[in-house]
Input
Amino acid sequence: MEEERRKGFCLMVVAGEVSGDHHAAGLCRHLLRLAPDTEIFGMGGSEMASVGVEVVERIEGKGVVGIWEAVRALGDFRRLFRRLEGVLDARRPDALLLIDFPGFNLRFARAARRRGIPVIYYICPQVWAWGRGRLRKIRRFVNRLLVIFPFEREFFAGYGIEAEYVGHPLVDRLAEFPSRARARQELGEGSGTLIGLLPGSRLGEIERIYPTLLASARRLRKRREGLRFITPVSAPELGEKIASLAAASGVGVRLIEGRSREVMAAADLVLVASGTATLETALAETPLIVVYRVSVFSWLAGLVLIKIPWISLVNIVAGRRVVSEFIQHRARPEAIAAEAEKLLDPSGKERIGMLGEFKKIRAELGEAGARERAARAVLQALKELDGTRKPRE
Output
């Protein structure tokens, strides 16, 4: 049985959130095409399962927002950690591939290395923004680091950590974005001004951010006639909460299942929670406003820990303020609505300037093919790391 399995590599993957599930699925799809005999299993969601990964632990409900929220969920994460340690011991993979989810995954990297299992990290912790104490853990417990932003390679080199730049997987998704006209047709939306409200993919984000987006929409509707609002529901388990908040707002927002790409492409403006969706919207060349809220404790801790002046990926990649960020106490509906009015003017300097900056960001993120490059890097790492791990018992 051991000889049969050794025909290909055995890889355990740990992705803890919806975005991680998506990135892991893209990488694993290419990896299985390059090396069909590879056995891949781990924690993930429906996208990983759809490409042939054996999902032994589902990600639903795993993601949390903010430091205080993470503290409250510690018991759940400890139980999850022990379950995955059991999988690691039972399956003894050739390597462990970690996708984002740094608070959990860096601890799990330590558990793997203690067992002599090499660790590959893809979509690495954003230590350039905060949490630089994690650099020591990356240096000690991660064998290969695959980064997605061009500036990350130089950043890690400054701390004696070798990183391989493979490109941002979102660039590959540009081909999946429909044109504005086609997106509107697919959504059943005609002419007129359409505004997307994207409150995030975690329950905590929905509860804290969506009411602010809806209140901003309500103020905009009073100022402008004929506005339509649409929200893609990213996960079925969030649907009930989103529907309840939308109904209570009286805005008349349209809810659709999934199809966030179509919404980003079809909309004239998107009000969006900070996260990967900000960069996706920018790459779709749709103007956006970033809104974010966490608990007071998490916000105060962030003021101490965060080392850069922005939180949205658009501004971080650009290295300058391109989009407005309405964070915590600044996330006031009247201020958001006023900014939105400026961006809805098709000939306004704010809208034209923002769209020009989006083109520059697209150029900075490199060429398409990032997911395949990442898969090739993982396969090469598996070949080079083979034999460096402790033998299976």
Summary: The CA atoms of residues 69 and 295 lie 8 Å apart. Residues 2-167+369-385 form a domain with the Rossmann fold fold (CATH 3.40.50.2000). The longest helix spans residues 203-223. Confidence is low (pLDDT under 50) at residues 1-5, 64-72, 299-305.
